[in-house]
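Tip: read the tokens left to right.
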């Protein structure tokens, strides 16, 4: 792609449009925006730190005039390299657009700027007796703009759905600098194609989100957390249909397989029974009396389903302690292994056990440890390939193992990414999931929205380019942990 560069002349032109405090060019300032959680630094030519939404259209008009790439960035917690300015140009930080403009208790909505951190909205809504359900595990650090661009999901997905289900309306700036409001401010609306839904999950490649109207719910009165220990993963997996037969919808069903449990046991001695090789972390929320009933029913169903033991917490430190078992895993694996590759595949609920059995076999065939944990309730598995040795032959085996693990997810009717997006990291495998006709259709949509290809170039479809291959090679060399 033949993009324009940020020359001194062009910068002077932009200085006429934006205040000086928005334009960062010093190397140290650029470095602060060079990486996200893929940990593969790529320097932009210029950082534009938007202080007001109205600064975004003139930036895009300037970029369109000179065909300069613009990569939007929220909080930089993305795990697939979505916010890396891989073709240079401008890194547009939306982090300072962090105002909650309105919480409307009558319409049960929140109007927010894109840089608002997920946790800040959850807290502000809770203070008004309201509730914003999407809860990616990065809720304390990721921005709502990034959540929208990645259609983020979290443990509460099983009951409440993903970010898309909570977005009513988006204010966006298009590639030519024009502005548009996508979607009505109503809960229903069926006029024409849903361009709002196209922008959700588009990884900053179709438009820059400058404002969002999000749906809220009344805050659940109570929450109860349970930890259930099973002798094997199949018994744990069988609980998802069992809950549904019992008419219960937990608000989280997280799981860990036997290998994951074995590793966490070393970190938290005495917390996990020796015979436990499948674990469920469950939550239910709602009215106090209903939660009481549901948690009893969940506990009973687990024991009937062969659970060795079930622990319950109403909240506070005890709840945190139960969650610590699940949350400690990422930290423990990072510490205990020399190399780790973590994928975020998803499969249909009835294929989870089959997937994990297949994954373990693939691991054995490559002489590697493969473990799984994640969101059982929506089939989203964080499948980890782990090695104690950090050398080139091991890395080759790990790569071959990942190829098979991603292919297996698609063979079982699943996807190569349940939540982290394609970005740079997943591009080589996109063809496993999308046939050429659909890839072509998606590229034509991109072409219609952004004919010059300046919005976040090098993402999703760019795998054939030299730049993408070069970056992917660098990523794999540095691959450590996600
Ligand atoms: C510890 C940890 C746990 C995580 N857990 C989860 C999880 O449970 N579920 C999950 O889904 N993800 C998870 N993630 C991944 C990440 O937090 C999410 O993808 C999150 O939504 C990214 O938000 P961000 O603000 O950091 O976006 P960034 O990383 O800054 O950007 C991500 C993408 O969004 C685009 N973008 C950002 N803002 C805008 C905007 N205003 N307009 C247009 N495009 C924009 C960027 O161009 C980029 O493509 C986790 C990450 C970490 C580090």
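Filled-in amino acids:
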């Amino acid at each position: 792609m033949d993009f324009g560069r940020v020359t001194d002349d062009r910068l002077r032109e932009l200085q006429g449009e934006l205040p000086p405090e928005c334009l960062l060019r010093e190397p140290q300032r650029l470095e602060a925006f060079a990486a996200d959680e893929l940990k593969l630094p790529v320097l932009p030519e210029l950082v534009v730190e938007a202080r007001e939404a109205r600064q975004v259209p003139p930036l895009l008009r300037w970029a369109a005039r000179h065909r300069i790439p613009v990569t939007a960035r929220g909080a930089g917690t993305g795990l697939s390299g979505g916010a890396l300015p891989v073709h240079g140009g401008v890194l547009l930080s939306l982090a300072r657009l962090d105002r909650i403009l309105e919480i409307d208790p009558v319409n049960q909505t929140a109007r927010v700027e894109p840089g608002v951190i997920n946790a800040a909205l959850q807290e502000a809504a809770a203070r008004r007796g309201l509730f914003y359900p999407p809860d990616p595990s990065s809720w304390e650090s990721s921005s709502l703009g990034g959540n929208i661009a990645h259609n983020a999901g979290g443990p509460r997905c099983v009951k409440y759905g993903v970010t898309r289900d909570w977005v009513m309306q988006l204010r966006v700036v298009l590639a030519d600098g024009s502005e548009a409001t996508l979607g009505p401010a109503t809960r229903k609306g069926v006029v024409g194609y849903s361009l709002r839904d196209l922008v959700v999950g588009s990884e900053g490649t179709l438009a820059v989100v400058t404002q969002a109207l999000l749906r809220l719910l009344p805050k659940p009165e109570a929450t109860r957390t349970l930890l259930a220990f099973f002798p094997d993963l199949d018994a744990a997996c069988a609980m998802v249909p069992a809950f549904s037969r019992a008419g219960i919808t937990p608000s989280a069903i997280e799981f860990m397989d036997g290998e994951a449990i074995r590793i966490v046991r070393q970190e938290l001695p005495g917390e996990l029974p020796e015979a436990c090789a499948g674990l469920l972390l469950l939550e239910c929320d709602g009215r106090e009396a209903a939660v009481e009933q549901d948690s009893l029913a969940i506990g009973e169903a687990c024991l009937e389903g062969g659970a060795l033991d079930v622990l319950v917490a109403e909240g506070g430190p005890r709840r945190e302690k139960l969650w610590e078992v699940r949350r400690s895993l990422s930290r423990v694996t990072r510490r205990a292994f020399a190399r780790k590759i973590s994928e975020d595949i998803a499969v249909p609920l009835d294929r989870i056990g089959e997937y994990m059995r297949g994954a373990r076999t693939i691991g054995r065939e490559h002489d590697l440890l493969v473990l799984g944990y994640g969101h059982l309730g929506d089939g989203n598995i964080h499948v980890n390939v782990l090695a104690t040795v950090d050398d080139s032959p091991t890395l080759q085996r790990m790569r071959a193992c990942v190829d098979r693990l991603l292919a297996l997810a698609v063979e079982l009717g699943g996807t190569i990414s349940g939540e982290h997006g394609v970005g740079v990291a997943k591009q080589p495998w996109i063809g496993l999931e999308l046939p050429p006709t659909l890839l072509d259709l998606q590229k034509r949509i991109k072409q219609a929205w952004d004919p010059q290809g300046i919005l976040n170039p090098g993402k999703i479809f760019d795998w054939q380019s030299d730049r993408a291959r070069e970056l992917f090679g660098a990523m794999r060399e540095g691959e450590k942990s996600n």
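The radius of gyration is 23 Å. Residues 36-37, 71-79, 82-83, 94, 114, 136-138, 142-143, 145-147, 149-150, 152-154, 203-204, 208-209, 419-420, 456 surround flavin-adenine dinucleotide (CB under 6 Å).
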